Amino acid sequence: MILIAAEEPEIAAKWRNVLSPLFEVYEVDVHDRRSLELCLKKVPIEVLVVDLGLLGESGINEISALREIQQSLHIVVMTKIPDQREEISAVLFGAKAYCSFDLNIELLPKVIKTVCMNELWVDRKFVTRLLIEIEDITQVKHAEAKRLDKGVAAMTPRESEIASLVATGASNRRIAEQLNISERTVKAHLGVIFRKIGITDRLQLALYMNRHQQLSAIWHGAKASHSTPTSNDPRSKH
After folding, report:
1. Which of 182, 176, 149, 146 is nearest to 162 (CA)?
2. Domain residue limits, the chain
3. Of 17, 56, 71, 137, which is least surrounded by CB within 10 A?
4. For 2-127, CATH number?
5. How many CA atoms lie within 13 Å of 127's alpha carbon, on the beta-carbon side?
């Protein structure tokens, strides 16, 4: 079943007129965010054709919330002002299609058939833009990983031990007991660590260390997978 959600009744009627002869369309169109959510909680819907403006200021961010209500929901986002970056965000948040209000109305049934096959309906250049976006994100994460690595490398072995324990939520007393040192010494080490990596409290240190561990697992794991020969790799044969 298809549910149509649009702020303007005439827009909803336009979509309904082209879809209802070919598909089962829910008997009532919805025209506000609250009604949309209530409907999704009560009625099994296969495809949601939704006006992006109806989702409010949060816009694209609401897509994942809608899919939490019905996880198998296929969402077709319709927008008055298409935006290439917004299209990427829509798909990443779970939409199956991102279309302009100016889409040839005769193509809308084809869009529905495409998403029902669990395929995407996007601009031809979408994949290229997505790869560029991923590359940009990757470069940013790589730069962050290098910055965090530099901070951790500046720590002495003892400071690194203490920072790692702080990241687990251990108190100064617990750290002192585990490392067989005084709480005063722990505090002194923490002061030095804070200055070295440019932070001011334990919470920031815990976040710093956990983020470092997370990114290290990604980058170092990726390097290992590329450098470790497999049984089918000629370099592993002697």
Report:
1. 176
2. 2-127, 136-225
3. 71
4. 3.40.50.2300
5. 3
Instruction: Kindly report, residue by residue over 83-131, the tens digit of the pLDDT.
Output: 877 887 788 788 888 888 988 888 999 999 999 998 888 766 666 666 6
Exposure string of 123-148, with b = 16+ CB inside 10 Å and e = fewer, is eeebeeeeeeeeeeeeeeeeeebeeb
Write out pLDDT tens, residues 3-28.
Answer: 999 989 999 999 999 999 999 998 88
Give this prediction's pTM. 0.54
Give the three-state DSSP class for 117: coil
Token digits for 105?
């109305």
If we measure between CA atoms, which residue out of 128, 155, 16 comes closest to residue 78?
Answer: 16
Q: How many CB atoms neighbour CB 157 within 10 A?
A: 7
Supply the CATH classification number for the domain 136-225. 1.10.10.10
Residue count (the chain): 238
Structural tokens at position 110 = 């084809």
